[in-house]
Amino acid sequence: MNSNKVTPVHLRRSAIIYVRQSTLEQVANNLESQRRQYALVERAIELGWQADDVIVVDDDLGISGSGVARSGFDRLVADVGLGRVGLVLALEVSRLGRNHRDWYHLIDLCALVDTLIGDADGLYHPGVFNDRLLLGLKGTMSEVELHLIQSRLNGGLWEAARRGELRTHLPVGLGYDRNGKIVLTPGEAVKEAVALIF
Q: Where in the sequence numbering do the catalytic residues fall?
């Protein structure tokens, strides 16, 4: 990361490290990604911030970046808007948002209050045309990536349905047997509760 964009004005404010993984499964199993994201604290210190001025926002671990309410991201945006942040740092910009609304709102605020955005590729000033162009492209690619992931997932589900092999979550009281047939749950308590309702 090129540090020549960092000014004393930026250093007088906080650096926010935004840590996010999309699913609880990733949080539980992809610990290397978490380590890399938390290690960005050291990168902020190398860029000139004091350790006490580096804030880690990890409230959104296990929450998708595709338009779902994210309290950590909302807090980050509020702090940027109040002029408290000199740098927003994430491993990839896709951690910050996978939709244009969130992404461009953050970029616009950062440009307005002179806040830098950084990722593993470098530092960007959203108020500078070329940096904003790169950030825009990164945001667009992130949104495209989400679309491709959803398309692959939906395509797989449709193919399984065409073959008659799609298995979905069943209502309480039903389950699959060893042959994949839908059967009543063997538990007596569940059977009694279902029978009481119906």
A: 22
